[in-house]
Specification:
single chain; about 220 residues; mainly alpha; about 70% helix; about 0% strand; globular
């Protein structure tokens, strides 16, 4: 079995177990071990499949595609900054989070990243994935990016259905005030604090990318 096939299998396992545990198996596991027990099982499986994917990624061939040049790198850089804006904005007032005040959060008017989409975390991951597809850097990166893109966008859609069942009118009311598909024109309404935080983290993360992945990212492609 080639290393790329192993990576593909690991990536499929990572995505599939998320979907299976979050949806058809969630209710019976909660009945058997409770909500906290379910979160424990979910976290362990997610960690195990993620580690498998990382190990398989490292074993797969290094950059073996042509790359998209400076234009692709610039597009990917912009996409990853926006991804961080959405990701950072997803932690405050998010009714999708498993928190006791989720219904209260759903009753409030959307603010920050939720003005763009009700799934800012998922779209943050999706933009990260798209950025890496745009780079056209390697087959191993493409496999992982496609897995994350599928998990993010299909997972977000499935989450709507799950939350409708679990939260009822609270979630449907939140859906009426927000959108699944991002309203990109509202990106600059999220608050400058989010943008500043995203840019700082982006600079640090892309610099660390040199050491973690063995390749420059962001502005470090041209600076340094």
């Amino acid at each position: 079995m080639t290393s790329l096939v192993t990576l593909a299998i690991a990536s499929i396992a990572f995505v599939a177990t998320h979907f299976i545990l979050s949806h058809p198996l969630r209710a019976p596991i909660v009945v058997a071990v409770g909500e906290k027990g379910f979160m424990g099982v979910y976290s362990l499986v997610a960690l195990a499949t993620f580690v498998w994917m990382v190990i398989a990624f490292r074993a797969a061939p290094a950059p073996d595609l042509g790359g998209s040049g400076d234009v692709g790198w610039a597009v990917a850089s912009v996409l990853t900054v926006i991804a961080l804006v959405l990701f950072l904005g997803s932690f405050r007032g998010n009714p999708a989070m498993p928190a006791p005040d989720a219904k209260d959060a759903a009753g409030k008017d959307p603010r920050g990243a939720f003005l763009v989409t009700r799934h800012p975390m998922m779209w943050g991951f999706a933009l990260w994935a798209i950025a890496h597809l745009v780079l056209f850097w390697s087959l191993r990166t493409t496999i992982v990016a496609l897995a994350i893109l599928t998990l993010a966008l299909v997972g977000a859609k499935l989450q709507d259905g799950k939350k409708e069942r679990l939260m009822g009118a609270a979630w449907t009311g939140w859906e009426a005030k927000t959108t699944y598909w991002p309203r990109w024109s509202r990106l600059f309404s999220v608050g400058w604090g989010l943008w500043l935080g995203a840019i700082v983290i982006w600079l640090l993360a892309t610099y660390g990318h040199i050491h973690a992945a063995g390749a420059p990212a962001g502005i470090w492609m041209w600076v340094g």
